[in-house]
């Protein structure tokens, strides 16, 4: 008799499921499909998409992309580039230090949305899909295939959270919806930015900065020059998805590290690129928008000292812009001015900045001992007091100083060293008109403000502002004179706003009280200035500049929405603050506060950037 013994069965060790994509295709097939779809998207832009030129952009030409086809061409090129980089092709790996898959998905999605938006717009405006040429069908199919292939790329799925079996059907639905949201978020997640295996030489890094500035100038010039509504909407789509793809690829972080290493070169390069903008325009139409954007951005950068560095919520900041504008207008030789003399620009600029600084000290001295909401209410009151005061100084309700609601009009154009800013001039074969002249002058003012912001944020007083912003009680305990530090920030911010106001007075010809309200549909006003700082990124230099440009440009281009313009604009701001509360170009310290899972930087600057 034999005894048979069997080994006890041990439970199988659970193995993690292999990563898979959102679409059930093999990884190799999906990657090839996405890459080929990007290439075919580029080719399809050289075909005709419709038979008639009634649709804006003239998409009837073979061999020459136009209008929205150019945007699809850019999106398809990015998709193909990231697709090739995902194969670890030598020379392209430098472009995707954080991995290519997430960037490939976003690029393919942006191209798909732009192409299908164009196809749908053609069908709706011209009366059906019958108005599409073969190129329209081709681009719709290949962009869809590219998106499906990109979504098939595998990723690490989050483990589902357990739920109570006794939950109601609605609670189980919410649980599953949250998990699906987490899965989609993980599909577009990116890894840490890897350091380059080989360090670039100094001249190559400078070339990277030059290329980045050139691309920035090209994007800004194209966006500001969009001639019709459909093109601007397409531009917003492809620019948004393209920037997100570059960010997910880690290229933005890599270029940012290079620009931080060569800060002076970056500053000079940005200034030169901006100065080249008027020479890219055939007329003065878009230079007008450019000079107003610079005025708005310069004032927002001054407010960034008060809000972003010192942490003081100022809701009446636009009043300092008005103080500078009125002060300069009164000594400009205007027939509406109560003072019958005409000072040169340098003198009026100093007067405008000095008067704004005095007002900043007068308002700040008794109020800066307040904090938070109380300070915000006081500054809001100051802004309204300024507007009402200049409105009543008309000789009837008060002294005749500001000419009341009519304001100070007929402000003459500047004339600096014989250079008349109101006349056309030819420079190097390029003709620049009135607003281009003021654009270049305002660019110099912006450069001064940027240098002041940069030097002050890196100084001892700048570190004191950051300490006050982070924890005023702890800063006071460490021996920082909080009142004096905040008063300096308030006065400096007012000075910079007043300096910008001196140029604004000459650009607009007229200064009136209605230009300096808390909230208005046309910037600059206090609400839009604060939104520009928060939207762009508090505590940074480039953040308020980008935020101000977007806040001025987008409402001007969304006028075709009519009564829904502010609704769409407000909805976009709400979504942005929901998903990126730290701003478009965030201060690194604030980014870590909002996203605790983010990778901590190796070094933080004195201002926490």
Straight-line distance between termini: 82 Å
Number of strands: 4
What is Rg? 28 Å
Q: Write down the overall mean pLDDT.
A: 84
Give the oligomeric state of the chains in this entry, treating copies of one chain as homo and distinct chains as hetero: single chain
Q: Summarize the main sheet.
A: 2 strands, antiparallel
The number of helices is 21
Low-confidence stretches: 1-15, 600-609
Succession of helices and strands: HHHHHHHHHHHHHEEEEHHHHHHHH
Shape: globular
Residues in helices, as a percent range: 55-70%
Secondary structural class: mainly alpha
Strand content: under 5%
The strands making up the biggest β-sheet line up spatially as 1-2
Name a few traits of the molecule.
single chain; 609 residues; mainly alpha; two-stranded antiparallel ribbon; 21 helices; globular; disordered C terminus; LivM-like; cell membrane; ABC_transp_permease; Branched-chain amino acid ABC transporter permease
Short summary of the structure?
This protein is mainly α.
Question: What report would you give on this structure?
Answer:
This protein is an all-alpha fold. The protein is 60% helix and 2% strand. Helix 2 runs parallel beside helix 7 and helix 10 packs antiparallel against helix 17. The protein is globular. This is Branched-chain amino acid ABC transporter permease. It is found in: Cell membrane. Keywords: Cell membrane, Membrane, Transmembrane, Transmembrane helix. It holds the Pfam family BPD_transp_2.
Topology:
Blueprint: H1 27-44, H2 68-85, H3 101-126, H4 134-151, H5 169-187, H6 202-224, H7 229-249, H8 251-261, H9 263-275, H10 285-309, H11 318-330, H12 345-367, H13 372-392, E1 415-416, E2 419-420, E3 425-427, E4 430-432, H14 434-457, H15 460-470, H16 472-477, H17 482-508, H18 526-536, H19 542-557, H20 565-579, H21 588-594
Antiparallel strand pairs: 1-2, 3-4
């Amino acid at each position: 008799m034999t005894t048979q013994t069997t080994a006890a069965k041990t439970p199988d060790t659970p193995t993690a499921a292999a990563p898979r994509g959102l679409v059930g295709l093999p990884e190799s097939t999906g990657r090839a499909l996405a890459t080929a779809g990007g290439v075919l998207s580029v080719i399809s832009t050289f075909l005709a998409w419709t038979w008639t030129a009634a649709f804006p952009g003239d998409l009837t030409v073979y061999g020459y992309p136009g209008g929205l086809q150019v945007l699809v061409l850019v999106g398809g090129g990015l998709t193909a580039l990231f697709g090739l980089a995902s194969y670890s092709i030598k020379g392209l790996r430098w472009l995707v230090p954080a991995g290519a898959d997430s960037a490939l998905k976003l690029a393919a999605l942006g191209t798909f949305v732009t192409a299908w938006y164009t196809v749908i717009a053609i069908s709706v405006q011209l009366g059906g899909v019958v108005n599409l040429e073969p190129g329209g069908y081709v681009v719709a199919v290949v962009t869809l295939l590219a998106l499906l292939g990109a979504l098939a790329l595998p990723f690490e799925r989050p483990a589902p959270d357990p739920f109570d079996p006794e939950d109601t059907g609605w609670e189980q639905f919410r649980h599953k919806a949250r998990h699906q949201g987490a899965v989609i978020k993980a599909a577009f997640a990116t890894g840490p930015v890897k350091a380059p295996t080989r360090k670039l030489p100094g001249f190559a890094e400078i070339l990277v900065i030059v290329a980045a500035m050139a691309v920035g100038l090209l994007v800004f010039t194209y966006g500001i020059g969009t001639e019709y509504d459909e093109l601007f909407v397409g531009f917003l789509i492809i620019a948004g998805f393209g920037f997100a793809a570059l960010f997910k690829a880690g290229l933005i972080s890599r270029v940012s590290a290079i620009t931080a290493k060569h800060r002076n070169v970056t500053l000079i390069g940005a200034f030169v690129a901006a100065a080249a903008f008027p020479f890219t325009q055939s007329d003065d139409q878009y230079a007008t928008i450019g000079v107003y954007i610079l005025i708005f951005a310069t004032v927002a950068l001054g407010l960034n000292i008060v809000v972003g560095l010192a942490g003081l919520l100022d809701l009446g900041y636009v009043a300092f812009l008005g103080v500078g504008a009125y002060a300069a207008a009164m000594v400009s030789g205007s027939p509406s001015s109560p003072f019958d003399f005409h000072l040169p620009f340098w003198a009026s600029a100093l007067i405008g900045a000095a008067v704004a600084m005095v007002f900043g000290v007068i308002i700040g001295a008794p109020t800066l001992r307040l904090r938070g909401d109380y300070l915000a209410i006081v500054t809001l009151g100051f802004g309204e007091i300024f507007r009402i005061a200049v409105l009543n100084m008309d000789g009837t309700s008060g002294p005749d100083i500001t000419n009341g609601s009519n304001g100070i009009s007929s402000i003459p154009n500047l004339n600096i060293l014989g250079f008349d800013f109101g006349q056309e001039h030819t420079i190097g074969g390029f003709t620049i008109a009135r607003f281009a002249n003021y654009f270049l002058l305002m660019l110099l003012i912006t450069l001064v403000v940027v240098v002041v912001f940069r030097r002050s944020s890196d100084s001892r007083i700048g570190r004191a502002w950051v300490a006050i912003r982070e924890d005023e009680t702890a800063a006071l305990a460490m021996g920082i004179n909080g009142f004096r530090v905040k008063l300096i920030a308030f006065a400096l911010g007012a000075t910079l706003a007043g300096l910008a106001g001196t140029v604004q007075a000459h650009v607009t010809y007229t200064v009136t009280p209605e230009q300096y309200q808390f909230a208005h549909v046309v910037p600059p006003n206090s609400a839009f200035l604060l939104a520009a700082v928060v939207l762009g990124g508090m505590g940074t230099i480039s953040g308020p500049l980008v935020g101000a440009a977007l806040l001025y440009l987008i409402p001007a281009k969304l006028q075709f929405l009519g009564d829904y313009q502010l609704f769409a604009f407000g909805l976009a701001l709400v979504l942005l603050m929901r998903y990126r509360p730290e701003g478009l170009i965030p201060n690194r310290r604030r980014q870590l506060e909002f996203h605790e899972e983010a990778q901590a930087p190796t070094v933080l600057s004195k201002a926490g950037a």
